[in-house]
Write the structure tokens for this entry.
Amino acid sequence: MANNQRRWSMASELLVVAGAILMAPSAEAQDLDGLKRAVAPAMALSDEEIIELIPDRAGIYFVGCPNCSGGTQENQISWTIERPQEVFCRFCDIRYPNDKYPDDQVLRVTNARGDEHEYPYWDDADGYHHFFQAKGWYVAREYFQDVARWLAELGGKSTLGDLGAKYGVSAERIRQIEKRAMEQMRVTATV
Ligand SMILES: [Zn+2]
């Protein structure tokens, strides 16, 4: 699948960057440290936080920034695990939603299973819907898919016990995070 292909190449890019920064003699060690850093923020979350943060509905990729003219192709808005309840513009740094651009409208969408989902948005003067939160859901879902795969890769490169010692959590906990992320992804994929 094209989507999987893209995610794999992102992982490769991450490993290349990690390797370049570390300049360590062992290629094996470079990959391992880069992956450990990549999964660290997710490892710090509780199970409840992970379940809460993995979106329960499909996200929306194309959402522009109404506050600036930076960037192109409605790809200005992004999201990070450090501030998971917000999205931000990569060019003017504004965070959404906010008082000036509130998500004060709601689009209701019924999926193939008959479940209704709400998509809050803000409308500009031309009637363009800005789905700030849904953009966050899109990026968050990709992030957790990456984390699940990084954990799987780490499992192959190190022992789960090593990881547990590094993060102060049990090997079982690491397996749970990976399993929950993958399960939640499957649920979301059917939406
Ligand atoms: Zn902007």
User: Anything to note?
Assistant: The two ends are 19 Å apart (CA to CA). The chain has six helices and six strands.
